[in-house]
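seq as requested:
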Amino acid sequence: MPKDYSRTSRLGEQIQRDLAHMIQFDMKDPRLGMVTLNHVKVAKDLGYADIYFTVMGAKGESDEEIRRQTESILNDAAGYLRTELSHVLSTRITPHLRFHYDETLDRGMKLTSLIRKATDEDKSRHADDEAE
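struct tokens:
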């Protein structure tokens, strides 16, 4: 019977808290915007941790460009962040860090707009039927 709150889940939450603090206060890259860490998925063997993030963009740049740049910056700094994380964590193994842009918010907004568009069209059709 698997545990409801496994060791990898607890470690993922700890990594998320510590990395969020490190990214906000320790990283000095001026290109890095407001990064939010949404989820950390740690492999069962603690070899890798996939970190999903979102970022608030700067004015004048495309969202896609900001996402790619932020992902590149974070993946380039993964070695530094892993080293700093190893000083904080009390585990024998510190997972390799892989950063990925979290597209769930974008998908949610797209689905919401599609639903809104469909309901608006349905309401307009229904209003036309009643007018006749």
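Residues 7-101 form a domain with the GMP Synthetase; Chain A, domain 3 fold (CATH 3.30.300.20).
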